[in-house]
Fold this sequence. Notes:
heterotetramer, C: mainly alpha, D: 489 residues, mainly alpha, two-stranded antiparallel ribbon, 21 helices, 1% strand, globular
Amino acid sequence: MNLPMLWIIPALPLAAVALNMLFGDRLGKKGTAFLACGAVGLAFAFAVRAVLTLAGRSEEERQIVETAWTWFRVGDFSVDVSFLLDPLSAIMVLVVTGVGFLIHVYSTGYMAEDPSFRRFFLYLNLFMFAMLTLVLADNYLLMFVGWEGVGLCSYLLIGFWYEKQSATDAGKKAFIVNRIGDFGFLLGVMFLIAWTGSVNFERVFASAPHLFTAGGSIITIATLLMFLGATGKSAQIPLYVWLPDAMEGPTPVSALIHAATMVTAGVYMVVRSHVLFEMAPVTLEVIAIVGAATALMAATIGLVQNDIKRVLAYSTVSQLGYMFFACGVGAFGAGIFHVMTHAFFKALLFLGAGSVIYGMHHEQDMRKMGGLATKMPVTHATMLIATIAIAGIPPFAGFWSKDEILAKAFATGHYGIFAAGLLGAVMTAFYMFRLYVLTFQGKARFDESGGHAHAHAHAADAHGAHAHDAHGHAAAHDDHGHDHGHGGPVKESPWNMTVPLSVLAVLSVIGGWVGIGKPFIEGESWMGRWLEPVLGSGPHVHHLAVSTEFGLMGLSVAIAAFGIFMAFRAYLQQPSIATAMHERFGGVHRALYNKYWVDEFYDAIAVNPIYQASMRLWRFWDEKVVDGTVNGVGYFLEGVSALLRLFQTGYVGTYALFIALGVLALFLHFLRS
Amino acid sequence: MAQLPWLSLLVFFPLAAAILVAIMPANAHKPIRWWATIAALAEFVFSLPLWWRVIPGQAGFQFEEKLDWIPVLGAQYHLGVDGVSGLLALLTTFTTLIAIIGAWTSVEKRSREFFALVLALEAGMLGTFFCLDLLLFYVFWEAMLIPMYLLIGVWGGQRRVYAAVKFFLYTMAGSVLMLVAILSLWFLQKQYSGIPTFDLQAFYQLPLAPSRQLWMFLAFAFAFAIKVPMFPLHTWLPDAHVEAPTAGSVILAAVLLKMGTYGFLRFAMPLFPNALEVCAPYIAWLAIIGIVYGALVAMVQPDMKKLVAYSSVSHMGFVVLGLMAMNSQGFAGSMMTMLNHGVSTGALFLLVGVIYERRHTRKIADFGGLWTVIPVYSVIFLVVMLSSVGLPGTNGFIGEFLVLLGAFKHSVWWAVVAATGVILSACYMLWMFQRVVFGPVTHEENRKLTDLSFRERLVFAPLLVLIFWMGVAPQPFLDRMQPALDRVLQMTNDRAQMMAQADATATAPLASRLPAAPAAVSVPAEQGGAR
Amino acid sequence: MIPTEWVLALSAVLFTIGVVGVLVRRNALVIFMSIELMLNAANLAFVAFARQQQSLDGQIFVFFVMTVAAAEVAVGLAIIVNLFRLRETVFVDEINLLKG
Amino acid sequence: MNIVPQPTFLALDWWALGPVIALTVGAILLLLLEFLPQRANGNRGGIVSLLTFLFSGYAVWRVAGEKRELFGGMFVHDPMTVFFTMLFCSVGLLATLMSWDYVKRTKINQAEYYALLLSSVLGMIVMAASNDLITVFLGLELMSLALYVMVGFRRSRLESNEAALKYFLLGAFASGFLLYGIALLYGATGTTNLAMIGAFLADTPLSTNPMLLMGSLLVFVGFGFKVAAAPFHMWTPDVYEGAPTSVTGFMSAGAKAAGFAALLRVALRALGPVMADWTQMLAVIAFLTMTVGNVTALLQGNLKRMLAYSSIAHAGYILVAVAAGGPEGASAAVFYLATYSFMNIGAFAVLTMLGKGREERVLMSDLQGLGFREPLLGLALTAFMLSLAGIPPMAGFMGKLYIFGEAVKHPQLLWVVIAGVLNSVVSVYYYLRVTVALYMKEPEGEPVGISWGAPAVVAIVLTLAATLYFGLQAQGLWIQAQNSVMGLL
């Protein structure tokens, strides 16, 4: 194996970034696109090669560790830049590079007319480098480098169209909320360093059992802090507010970062440190509850969103909720499996939405779409597959992973979580097919002649949700400076967009078969066996009778179908049902539409108070009190000086008097003593 | 190199260059600028051997030079360098070079005196870092104020006189109390060992009763706390920074603030270890308040330079916190943050200076959408901003992480509250960056801005290299500083125990209990690097 | 023989009158006279002590003091005359150009 | 212990008395030369006084090592006398250089001016070299009388006359106290010889004898006035402002040094034991002096008046050394006096050059923009101001270091040391105001004319050199100051 194995994977996109920066303008659009996609493609190839060599090894030593150099060593604590490939990170690296490559190809089409084409791919490659470092890191600190690196890239990419104030605001919001999460993650890692003396996964997981008392307060606090970091990165309650706003960025960005890769970093971190989390049952409970709550909350909001990308954003938050409560119930394997399948169909959904927006000349409001099935056949087909997959209809990928999660939740006795999961599944099916119906079925609610689709109010959607919420990000069509302007009829996107769609569609279908487990084949699923060396058999092996397995499957399929049916009826056959529902639940609807006013709540309790506090601190404390005292001393002295100068009257008599008084004072002093 | 009085040459070469510049004809702007740059460059190259010739492992101070200065007082012209002062000296020469090149166009009137004062300032700073004689240290410590005062006062903004006088008086008020402490320390030394001396190494071995140490430590700490600046004593910094010319505020931020923390490290902590143990928690909490307070106030500043000034208060809070953590991670972290802050805040001031030169305003509101107009500048601004926020991979992260780790080991709550500084720094930096660089071009004047000239890029190139080099491979820096830091840590702890025991057995009169001591100290000259 | 204490008391009284004279009077000349009075009070004290100790030192000192007083008069009057020529007044409470 | 006056008059005594003789002859010669015709702006007076000072300095230097008692113990030649004579001669020399062109410019009659200068320096030397209260009184009066006239020398200007009047009246008033004090001391101890008084006091505690206490108090009041200590300082600002600048310069250095010399002589030789229990009182007076001086000087618009208050403040610092007491305290005071004299004369030398023709431009506003117009002058004035403020590379810092170094040894004086350093911070403000005017302000209206004069420039260069040299290499002067006090006869 003369060729380097692991460090080449993150190095390739970094090299692409360097080349792009230095010779970018000479390469031209074609050259940049080729460089960027080529780098990621090569990385994917190397990744496959590395995973194959890994697979070739026997069960026990399925681990490749490559140390590049010692980052820094202070006293007894040292950190080195080293990479680790084991079954868990293998999956992640394949997903990241694979889906990443497809999205790069897609972007060459989507961003074709954008003037700062080069800068976009520069950021995208930088993101790939950061994500790969995160996934392949061998210790928490290098992971943290990747962790903050992806935070930075998401900041840059969300705010890519920097003329748009809302975009840069969203970028800033994303970075700061992520930073709050990183604060938690950093402190959690510090607990580990303080107790185990190292950040290396190997050593931490080896020494953790006998250093921490299982279920003790230290390990609980540490893991809770790390989970806080995960909520920041993977958009869970309470730090999910940045993801919906992150839709300001270009759609491929949403696909890559806010669907497939970055948001799953939190789940990966939790699964990677499953040894620690298993020692803190309290934290697991918290994760389960937070995951389930997020899943439900996001799903409800998703029901009423009108912007196609926001629906998908809330759907991502919801699906991430599933992954977390999978980990919460101890089904780390199922969590990762859902990460993989979700990456496929959610990326596909976003890319599909992207091509719809591309076709509709940057129209994002579903109320102005409709009837695109005939006009964009490939997009329609692939989107349909993805929608079915996410709804959880067998044999598509979504069913297997979501069902395994629900099964594990049921098996481990978390019935409340299980019920929430089911309810979430219904809603997911409903809003996904609402999206599908509004976009592809029904009459075209835009005029053919091109130009911007003006909003002629369609009866079904005239329901009361016209109150644009404060942030205006559900504006009819965001007027970012770069819209294509070219009018013309709606037509299918070019090949470099549709090909990735189809590849992802295939993956969305077959992706799930990897995880087909017990009821159909005996023993663990392929995925389970593959992850076994990393996750270990562990305490969470619960066996359900075969009949209950099938019962559960039937139940989830049924509720999914019910969701789909409801969507079709409400939005295709009788729009009146939708409007009726809105009247009756007007209040609820408004609450959902305004996302439970969470943003306003955060502003009220955090952003504004901090702003007022610092303004008062500066104006009052800094200028009045501290500077006041300093200048005060000066003015006091000047006052005394003026007083003393009054004594200097200029009359000889006064001076003689002072001399006499002085002599008198000396006398009295000595007479007394 | 060893037999050549290298350190003295390093200190007095810029002074000679300053005098030469001062006597050049006033209107010959070009030759003055070139001569000042060449002098600074020569000084920097001449100081480079500090990097490899200072052997990290060797105990004690290297390149020692000892000359009798005032024998009747026992004051000696005693210079020496170790890991810590070597790195800081390198930072000084590097920053001065950058500041001078950066200030070519920013100074129109009286450039001759300007460059002379900058070079004189460099001499003062190097002197302060190198001297190991308390009196000589005090002389350089005060002498250094004069050039800075004049730089702010003559070439500053509107309220320059107020800012300059406030800067001078603030620092002076602190350091005169330190002078009283030095004199009483000198008197105790004379009483104890019979030989009057100001030699630092002699003071390191001077047994001091913990009760007596306290007020002396407070005198030293007060002087250095003003210089750092620490929380309640920091109000001179924003004024001095806002009014100082670009080169002035770059040097002020990059080096002068480090004098305070260097003072803590070299003098206050090892000399009075027991008092340190008593005061450490209070100083640490002051530092933490400084971090959070500096960040919060920076958030609402309308003026960019004031924002960066308050961010300096916040970063220097990290440095002091690292020192108070009293463990090798904390020390290494604080030393790294000193260097990082020098590089990144120096770069920030240069950046503000660049657009101030073109637009003559520092108000954030006057800018917006610079990315479209001057992209190169904006990219550099982005990288420097990220290094100041402490993004992993840049230098800021290493320092902050180590400080937080050190603080964590000392007490969890220190780390938790200080870590909020990490969030706040992201807030104010990003918000400022967004209003200045991102967004549409709001003011017409901004359209006509010209991007960085070759000279200006030449200035920023080394800074960017440093930001990434110290971020990705900081080990060479850490290897150089750690032996020196460990020695200080070791000495402080040993002296603390020694004094504690001495205090416990304080029955016997002071002199008789340590008979061996006078012999050891009596012949300071030959012992050279004796601990 | 008059005891020294009485003479001393007289010289003290004279001295006090001189001091009060300087403080109270407004005319420069009178002030100057009061100062001369103080000097003579000192002379008286010297003579008294000389007599008490039977040594001539005190007497000699008085001669020195008288010569110095004479010189002082010369200089003092010259200044006061110059003052009068410039300001037409010798009242000290009118002279306060230099103050503050 | 009765000191029998040496009968013989050795050859070296001539040299010991050289300065006194030279100065007397010089003064008289100057007056006589008036009869000879002289070119319009000839500087005969300057040359004569220059030569006299040089000769005196050389004379006393020749017999520096000796210790002689002359005039029956009234005049003593010992290291202290040598040190102070050298100091007074150099002060006189610098004053001559300083006033060389100033006198011509302001139409002051040269002959009388220099004659008075010489006699004033003579008075100072006699004060410093006296071992008897009578000689102290004589020297004091001789110096004061000469100064009274010099202060009022610009007869046509009201301020000068007013200053002279005030200085004369208050000076005479104070010497009245001094004389009465001497009388009481004579009465109590039976002698006026300092050594004998010292011996007498050694065995009789002060408190038992009220007359002794009163006497020493009044003597201290007399010197307190001369030195401008706190309650007796009020004459200084008006006199310094009113007097011609060169006289003010000479007076601020010479008179103060002479006053302290006499005070130290009396304190060390005669009232040694008394001084011990006066420490706290002296410390309080020192504190009052320096605080009044520094605080009142904060907002002064007139440079001469500001330097007057600054000289009061410096008297306060020196009093701290006197409060520390003993030979070490005295040597610190002596060292400080030397450095202070040079700084002050340097500053005044610069001031003499400000203004054209008969005008004196010494307001703070006159200095605006001067720093860049006349770089050398600006640099010199800044150096003197920083030295007066006590900023390290300058001699002023070494002086303060020595004084506070000595005072720190006495725990009960710690409070006055801290007050002292804080006072010097306050003083930095008004010294910096000079540099602010010099460099940081643009001149309003037409800038101040500078009347250059070679001798004045030489004076500035000499004092600047002295200030920098003693700042960097204080060892030499330090040893001299110590020897001068230790070798007291």
